[in-house]
Write a structure and sequence with these properties.
By secondary structure, this protein is α/β, with parallel strands linked by helices. It is built from nine helices and 13 strands. The chain has helices at 27-35, 54-60, 68-72, 108-116, 135-155, 185-196, 208-218, 229-237, 259-263, and strands at 9-12, 39-43, 63-65, 76-78, 96-99, 120-123, 177-181, 200-204, 223-225, 241-244, 270-273, 294-297, 300-303. The strands form two sheets. The chain has a seven-stranded mixed beta sheet, with helices on both faces. A six-stranded parallel beta sheet has the order 3-2-1-4-5-6. Helix 1 runs parallel beside helix 2 and helix 5 crosses helix 6.
């Protein structure tokens, strides 16, 4: 028997935030919660963009509702995106919300309205595990880092106005040159993916500690450098792919690649600015969308889609 008062009533709304395809809980996760005595209310088609139909949630024990208001009446809300403006009137007094917060991007009036309703907001990005790391942020960064090389390889093809080259691994053919700006988790997983595909990788970061950690994690020595503009400019002139992987805990990421540097890059080369979530680290970057992901400037393909992991929200195949 579960102790009195331990039963939770959890609401999962359909996300309406820009380009958010994810859902906070999968049917399997819902099944675990329901089997432990909790009640789950899911908004109709909340999992549709992530390829989880209502039927799977219903089979897992969730109650499907067609009114957004009914979902927001749950004492606990779990969301995969921050609260947006249209959510504000629906929030309940003393409600608990478990979601990303993105404090640096949150409008002050949102915070004030949540305080007025005495909301308890638990931030995904600030949840630490026993080792002192941030597992949810790390998972999203690993997805983004691994995805960028697959995206870059696609846009290097002639069909997408790229240079018409593979990343590497072909006998007798020099490997494609990849420049990665930032030696954090995104940079590390981008480097792993690029190297596994046979590319030549060079990583820039202002932190020697992060560069050492990246090399230790990958397991062998690789080309690294602190951010020195002349060296960076020289390397960008001859690369096929440049990845912006800087992160910023507070405010905007620094712009480290100037428009002049981009103008000197090879036509058909590809920029993927993962840092666009925080403003971007290329001066020429502008926010794009999953529907229209790229634009050309100085003959260079720019991919500047925010929230790259939302493009990989789908479930694994069943066998």
């Amino acid at each position: 028997m579960k102790p009195e008062g331990a039963r939770l009533h959890i609401g999962i709304p359909k996300e309406t935030a820009f380009q958010e395809n994810r859902v906070a809980l999968t049917p399997d996760a819902v099944g675990v919660l329901v089997s432990n005595g909790h009640e789950i209310v899911l908004e109709h088609n909340a999992g549709e963009a992530a390829h989880y139909p209502d039927k799977e949630y219903n089979d897992a024990g969730a109650k499907i509702v067609y009114s957004r208001d009914d979902v927001f009446k749950a004492p606990v809300l779990v969301k995969s995106a921050p609260v947006v403006e249209e959510d504000m009137p629906l929030l309940q007094l003393n409600q608990t919300i478990i979601s990303p917060i993105h404090l640096s991007a949150m409008k002050s009036e949102f915070l004030e309205k949540m305080m007025e309703k005495r909301i308890t907001a638990i931030s995904f990005e600030n949840l630490k595990d026993d080792s002192g790391t941030y597992p949810i942020v790390r998972s999203m960064s690993e997805i983004a880092g691994s995805a960028v090389m697959l995206i870059a390889g696609q846009y290097l093809s002639s069909a997408n106005h790229g240079k018409g080259v593979l990343l590497g691994g072909i006998s007798g053919i020099p490997p494609t040159k990849v420049i990665i700006l930032g030696a954090g988790i995104v940079g590390e997983f981008a480097a792993r993916a690029a190297m596994s595909l046979g590319a030549s990788v060079k990583v820039f970061d202002n932190s020697v500690y992060r560069l050492k950690r990246l090399q230790n994690n990958i397991g062998h020595r690789m080309w690294t450098s602190v951010l020195e503009p002349k060296i960076l400019s020289k390397q960008l002139k001859t690369c096929e792919i440049a990845v912006g992987a800087f992160s910023s805990q507070n405010g905007r990421t620094p712009v480290v690649v100037t428009e002049e540097m981009v103008s000197n890059m090879r036509p058909g080369s590809v920029i993927i600015d993962v840092s666009i979530d925080r403003g971007g680290c290329f001066e020429t970057s502008e926010v794009t969308s999953h529907e229209h992901p790229i634009f050309m400037k100085y003959g260079v393909i720019h991919y500047c889609v925010p929230n790259i992991p939302s493009g990989f929200a789908g479930k694994r195949s069943k066998f």
